[in-house]
Design brief:
about 800 residues; alpha/beta; Rossmann fold; Four Helix Bundle (Hemerythrin (Met), subunit A); 27 helices; elongated; RNA_helicase_ATP-dep_HrpB_C; DEAD/DEAH_box_helicase_dom; nucleic acid binding
Length: about 800
């Protein structure tokens, strides 16, 4: 087939007819397309599919800017305006018409289409682009689509990815893999860990016109510098109005980008046009970066997050500077909070980033880390590390909250799934595993379950929704469009606004209500219901807040945004949700002083506490509960108790008595069974514990099989001890041990035994200093004893050193 001239020279073009034929002939109507950088898959394949497939095509792009760029480029190739054959739909923005056959949509849009029409009537093919990013929306859409395709035998699916291990998704779909080469010019990669001073010196002594600036403070990356080669300054023209010497710098996030921009502007002034490519930047400014660089304009330096890694082609880039770091969110299930971490990027990301420098001509990539640094092969799928509340609510709408009912490419963690379901129940979005009317309404608003729950509180709550949304820092026009969109959706969903809600923010963030516990010189510390503490950068902050944006941190979190709550309103809201527990425990002073209290609390936030009288039963129950928590070692004990347990363990090991071993191992867990009957009154001591142990472990049998003293063949009775040893093969062993002055064992020709185990003899001099350790007494008499006699006779002349008497001769 003859394709438009704009795509005829792309590496993928010779393969387009074959790709489309493979798709149409595929047994499961699906293929996985793996294409190298600059192959042209995102623009050329949609053009080809429009020629081979009669119906409408939905194309999923993970990023807004990429969706607009691809739709615009396809329209340009077709010689049309955007919104005719090729269009796009984003949140709050759309360009399409009845004639649109290729609609490029962002992730949430595709999920919404599937929920509204699970069979996707009128859609002939789905294209999922940049699947290697493994966003949670893409994984969810794939799971939904797999069910849809089991019913629709005329729906086709193309999963596209940059070069990666595609086998798992191909096996999941039962699809063939089609691999396409790209057009990538050589990229010279330089690893460098120089300091700023070293780097400046190297550049100053070279012919480079280099740009140098300090970068973010991080334990793994101290400094960042840009060192574009002078050769890159030679302009390669595409026509007469474009230049190719743009420097693309990858940084973790907007904070590092902003600081880098400030430092660069101070150092180079008007020497370059410094631009920011980040999701927080208005779409109009992002579009400018994707336009060719006029030949008479200053050189461009683009400071970007990971947004420029794939999908987008930034014109004129010949130099890439890669900080080697990325910003990732990780959800902490135990805390119910997300932690933003700056971590090393994967090698897959590093390859994608450096590849940006070689799209149009040979380029240079600077990696600001050592070539020997260990890095993961690819990033972890988002479904394994993110808050799943939106996903679980989508699944509830789909028809299940059972994690096992959907066929996942990568199953979400059960703990995170359960935490999300628990939050949705608190928000009133699901009940008994089914989506509620409120949950349906929340989902229809196109915002998170938290913000949706707030929005349903009425017009007065929309100010809070805006403050917590991604549009909080946007222009007035964007903010107005966002709020108008929510108002329209609320009107359509038919859900009546919640009445008499004094604090709407609590409807979306019930787990983020927090109380001040400490005021410092420059921050105030708050405690959350989960028990987590977080700091707000203000002195003497209000007593009650709702933290709408908080980073869980490592030991203490950081509150980025919050809403102050009146104390009366907070306590009134808590009163309907407060729990009351009677707690009987012990003060941590080792004196076993019991205290009984009634505690009113909201999670870990204690509202009120009062002491109440305790009984003997309370004491016994508290002892057993504390032992279960803190272990057997918490109980009062003495040498007799320790000795008895060691002897009991000795018997269990030598007899292979698993019942006795389990009893010893589970003493803390089973304390209510063996200890409680022996606790009388409101005190406990070591004697009480020992009596209970002897009853529980059959003390008479222990005393019989592992006695505390033995009678020697010479008639003497001596105490023995039991000690732990590690055998040469690593096995743990308990052995009976006898320390005895050597003259006191005269007349004993064989090693005494306890329960069949030879006693380890520590033979001492008259001054009780060690002479020999043995468990072979016969061998000792016939061996080392003669030498000991010779040595000791002069040192202790009053004692018997007649080896013949000792040896029985």
């Amino acid at each position: 087939m003859n394709y438009p001239v704009e795509i005829q020279n792309l590496p993928i073009t010779p393969f387009l007819d074959g790709i489309c034929a493979s798709l149409l002939k595929s047994k499961n109507r699906a293929i996985v397309l793996s294409a190298e950088t600059a192959a042209g898959k995102s623009t050329a394949l949609p053009v080809a599919l429009l020629s081979h497939i009669k119906g409408k095509i939905l194309m999923l792009e993970p990023r807004r800017l990429a969706a607009v760029a691809i739709a615009s480029r396809v329209a340009e190739i077709l010689g049309e305006d955007v919104g005719q054959t090729a269009g796009y739909t984003l949140h709050l923005e759309s360009k399409k018409s009845k004639a649109t056959r290729l609609e490029v949509v962002t992730e949430a849009i595709l999920t919404r289409r599937l929920q509204a029409d699970p069979l996707l009537e009128g859609i002939s093919a789905i294209v999922i682009d940049e699947f290697h990013e493994r966003s949670v929306h893409a994984d969810l859409a794939l799971a939904f689509l797999k069910e849809t395709m089991e019913i629709r035998n005329d729906l086709f699916l193309v999963v596209m990815s940059a070069t990666m291990n595609c086998r798992s998704v191909a096996d999941y779909l039962g699809a063939d893999i089609v691999e396409i080469p790209g057009r990538r010019f050589p990229v010279d990669i330089e690893y460098t860990t120089e300091s700023v001073e070293q780097c400046v010196s190297r550049i100053a002594n070279s012919d480079d016109h280099s740009l140098v600036y300090p970068q973010f403070d991080h334990k793994n990356v101290d400094k960042l510098w840009i060192t574009p080669k002078n050769s890159v300054n030679s302009v390669e023209k595409s026509g007469k109005n474009a230049r190719y010497d743009t420097i693309l710098v990858f940084l973790p996030g907007i904070g590092e980008i902003t600081r880098a921009k400030r430092d660069l502007e101070e150092k180079i002034g008007n020497g370059a046009e410094i631009m920011i490519l980040h999701s927080s930047v208005p779409l109009s400014e992002q579009k400018k970066i994707l336009s060719p660089v006029p030949a008479d304009s200053p050189r461009r330096i683009i400071l970007s997050s990971a947004i420029a890694e794939t999908s987008l082609t930034v014109p004129g880039v010949t130099t890439v500077v890669d900080s080697g770091m990325c910003r990732t969110s990780r959800f902490d299930v135990a805390l119910g909070m997300t932690r933003l971490v700056t971590e090393r990027e994967s090698m897959f990301s590093a390859e994608q980033r450096s590849g940006r420098a070689g799209r149009t001509m040979p380029g240079k990539a600077y990696r600001l880390w050592s070539a020997s640094d260990a890095r993961t092969e690819s990033a972890q799928p988002e479904i394994l590390r993110t808050d799943l509340s939106q996903l679980v609510l989508e699944c509830a709408k789909w028809g299940t909250t059972d994690i096992g009912k959907l066929d996942w490419l990568t199953p979400p963690p059960e703990s995170a799934w359960n935490a999300a379901a628990s939050l949705l129940e608190k928000l009133g979005c699901i009940e008994n595993g089914k989506i509620t009317q409120k949950g349906e309404a929340v989902l229809s608003l196109g915002i998170s379950p938290r913000l949706g729950s707030i929005a349903l509180c009425g017009e007065g709550a929309l100010k809070t929704v805006l403050a917590c949304s991604e549009f909080a820092g946007a222009g007035a026009e964007k903010q107005l469009a966002f709020l108008d969109d929510i108002r329209r959706r609320i009107a359509r969903c038919g859900f009546h606004a919640l009445k008499n809600v004094r604090v709407p923010v609590l409807e979306g963030f019930p787990d983020r209500l927090s109380r001040r516990i400490e005021s410092g010189a420059d921050s105030t510390t708050y405690q959350f219901p989960s028990g987590r503490k977080a700091e707000l950068k203000t002195t003497n902050g209000p007593e009650w807040i709702v933290a709408t944006d908080v980073d869980a941190g490592t030991s203490t979190g950081r509150i980025r945004a919050c809403e102050e709550i009146d104390g009366k309103d907070a306590l009134e809201w808590i009163s309907a949700r407060m729990e009351r527990d009677v707690v009987v425990d012990f003060a941590d002073d080792g004196k076993f002083r019991m205290q009984k209290r009634e505690i009113s609390h909201y999670g870990e936030i204690i509202i009120k506490e009062r002491k109440i009288p305790a009984t003997a039963d309370d004491f016994a129950a508290a002892v057993c509960t504390t032992v279960e928590k803190k272990g057997f070692g918490w109980l009062p004990s003495d040498e007799k108790t320790d000795d008895f347990l060691l002897r009991a363990e000795f018997v269990a090991i030598e007899d292979g008595n698993s019942v006795l071993s389990e009893k010893i191992e589970n003493l803390a867990r089973d304390s209510a069974e063996w200890l409680r009957p022996f606790i009388t009154g409101t005190s406990i001591d070591g004697r009480m514990v020992l009596d209970a142990l002897k009853y529980h472990l059959d003390g008479s049998a222990i005393d019989r099989d592992a006695p505390r003293e033995i009678k020697l063949p010479n008639g003497r009775t001596r105490k023995i001890s039991y000690e732990r040893f590690t055998e040469k093969d690593g096995r743990k062993k308990i052995r009976p041990v006898l320390e005895i002055v050597i003259q006191q064992i005269f007349g004993c020709f064989e090693t005494p035994r306890v329960h069949g185990v030879p006693v380890l003899l520590r033979l001492l001099s008259p001054a009780r200093r060690p002479l020999q350790i043995t468990d072979d007494l016969g061998g000792f008499w016939n061996g080392a004893w003669l030498d000991i006699c010779k040595e000791m006779r002069g040192r202790y002349p009053k004692h018997n050193w007649d080896y013949r008497v000792a040896g029985g001769e």
